[in-house]
Each structure stands twice: as C-alpha cells, then as structure tokens.
Amino acid sequence: KAGVTQTPRYLIKTRGQQVTLSCSPISGHRSVSWYQQTPGQGLQFLFEYFSETQRNKGNFPGRFSGRQFSNSRSEMNVSTLELGDSALYLCASSVGQGADEQYFGPGTRLTVT
Amino acid sequence: GQQLNQSPQSMFIQEGEDVSMNCTSSSIFNTWLWYKQDPGEGPVLLIALYKAGELTSNGRLTAQFGITRKDSFLNISASIPSDVGIYFCAGPLDSNYQLIWGAGTKLIIKP
Predict the structure, then answer these.
(1) What does the pLDDT read at residue B1?
(2) Taking CB atoms and an 8 Å cut-off, how many pairs form between chains A and B?
C-alpha cells in the first residue's frame, strides 16, 4: 500500500504570495491532519479533516486554510506569505479519528524570501 | 490544556549504549504513540500503546504505557548510528480529533 504523498517537496515563494500544498493519504484513510514544523521545533497542529469537514483547528491565523476532497485528498493554502511561514509542512493520515495512529508524508519544505 | 512533557530534551550517546526517554502528562491518556523523525523527513511511527502497563517491543526499541496512564517510556538498547534523530511522543486530545505532541528528544551520537 502506498504511503502518504505530499507535493511539492520543496517550494520557494516571496513574501505576499500565496501557496497551495497537496496531500494524498494512504488508501482507505479518511482523516488528514496538517502540521507546521519550524527548525528545532516540535509539531504545531494546523487542522484536521474528515469526510471533507474540518473537525479541529489549531491556533494559526486565518491566512492558513485547508480543504479535503471526496477522495480524502487534502490541500492547505497559505495566503499573504510572511517570512515566518518558512517551515516544513507535514500532513498525516489516519483511518478514522485524527487521534488514531497517524502516518506522515515526507513533508513540503516551504521557504519564504 | 493538555500538554506532554518529554525528557530529556537531547542526549549525547555513544554507539552501543542503552537509551531511555520518557513522556509525562498531567492528564490521563488512553493511547501513547512514539515516533522518530530523521532530518527533513516526516515522523515515522515506531510503537503504539493502548493499555496501561503494556510493554511493547519493536526490534531494539521497547516502550511502556505507565500504570498511572500519565506517562510512557521509550528505551533503545545497544544504540547504533542510525538511531540518531528526534523521538516524539504523542497522545490523543480529549476531542479525539487531534493528537498532542511532546517537544521531542534529540539523539546525537558522540564523536
């Protein structure tokens, strides 16, 4: 069974631009969670989706948004990029509840200049 | 709110040494998960624990679900260079829609 895939793996954007990151969960997994990880930091929860519904959201500004499609694939969008948004963005999928065992993709490394 | 306190923050180890780290919470958990992250990659699930007192092994790794359900321990025996990385513990938030995470224990090999 294929693992979680994330595209693109690397991205360079300039301040003020917007970006969309994509995540394809493991087949059969219906929950997708997104995290931001900055150098030397732990995992900061962004949001969790299940059956196209956002069930939980972390403490991030409204510039961070996401969605989930009927095939469980998910995208997250960051508008009006700031330098501080430079980070590794990770998505994780789980079978049902977001608090189940989560399986991570390789991440998207976003650099904002 | 719920928090996971993970210690130590970092460890310098020599190849062949045994390693111990732990994770504690002020709240009761029903699940403990241990992950390892290599630089620039996503965390990989190592061990999942679901029952108080449970002891589970995965090769040289052994994790235990504390009897109080407020802590968990991860041990690595006879460490090797590829054990280097960051180890995270995680457990479900009350809502069950979200995991909360420890800050990680960074394993570094002594030169």
Answers:
(1) 58
(2) 62
